[in-house]
Design a protein that fits this description.
Keywords: Hydrolase, Magnesium, Manganese, Metal-binding, Peroxisome, RNA-binding. It is a single chain. With 244 residues, the protein is α+β, with helices and mostly antiparallel strands. The chain has a single domain, classed as Alpha-Beta Complex (Nucleoside Triphosphate Pyrophosphohydrolase). It is built from 4 helices and 12 strands. Strands 1, 2, 3, 4, 5, 6, 7 and 8 form an 8-stranded mixed sheet that branches. A two-stranded antiparallel ribbon has the order 9-10. α1 crosses α3. The longest helix has 25 residues. The radius of gyration is 18 Å and the shape is globular. The termini are far apart. 32% of the residues are buried.
Length: 244
């Protein structure tokens, strides 16, 4: 009996992972957007199974950084000439920032990219990491590492949309979550592109309607997410042309 009780969490953890893998592979864009003529960056979306639930690992940027100091983000950064592809970039950055060894990472897929404030093409790389992972943050880049239940990004306790001007100059809304980590007695603000990727990941894996508005056709999530991105990309080029 002792053996079966021990193996049960293992079996249920494998079931949770397998279900998520199946869903994620349907949404894998591979290198579909890799040739777009924009500077490249990647982020790793590390999934962990804890207490029978999927959690997402996030970092808090160091206050010493020039860009977005003290903001919540995923491990990641700009691509370097030695990186083979977006996956390579995400793994290298995660190792540099939080001490995550690439061989301890099970990469599942690449999702539809986003554009950051500097108009980098940012590719989210989704992966599983072990629940035993102990982060060793690089203090020059990361001041904190924490996890949030993935379900929080479709059923949040504290959410508000923030208005912002798109690169095309029109008014839009971005997700903003406040997450209270009781263990750490700290409240984290998760917004912008980081929140955008977290929401999309939760929509893909759970296939449920969120408790707030999203600008996707939830019945056609793959095509509508790609269309949203291509519209954004097109508006960027319209703007570049009009600035000439």
């Amino acid at each position: 009996l002792a053996v079966s009780r021990r193996s049960f969490p293992f079996a249920s953890r494998n079931r949770i992972k397998e279900k998520a893998r199946r869903r994620l592979r349907e949404f894998d864009v591979g290198d579909k957007f890799s040739l777009l003529p924009l500077p490249k960056a990647s982020v790793l979306l590390p999934l962990i199974v804890r207490e029978g639930k999927l959690h997402l690992l996030l970092t808090l940027r160091s206050m010493q950084l020039r860009r977005s100091p003290g903001e919540v983000c995923f491990p990641g950064g700009k691509s370097e000439a030695t990186d083979k592809d977006e996956i390579d970039t995400a793994l290298r950055e995660a190792k540099e920032e939080v001490g995550l060894q690439p061989e301890k990472v099970e990469v599942i897929c690449r999702l539809v990219p986003g554009l950051d404030k500097m108009n980098h093409l940012v590719t989210p790389v989704v992966a599983f990491i072990e629940d035993t992972f102990q982060a060793t943050p690089n203090p020059d880049e990361v001041s904190d590492v924490f996890v949030v239940p993935l379900e929080y990004f479709i059923k949040p306790l504290n959410y508000k949309p923030l208005p912002y001007k798109t690169s095309a100059g029109s008014l839009s809304w971005m997700h903003c979550f406040m997450y209270d980590d009781r263990e750490r007695q700290h409240s984290y603000k998760i917004w912008g592109l980081t929140a955008h990727f977290a929401v999309f990941l939760a929509l893909v894996i759970f296939g449920k309607r969120p408790t707030f508005e999203v600008n996707y056709d939830l019945d056609n999530l793959i095509s509508s997410s790609e269309k949203n991105f291509l519209d954004l990309y097109a508006s960027l080029f319209e703007r570049k042309k009009s600035n000439l």
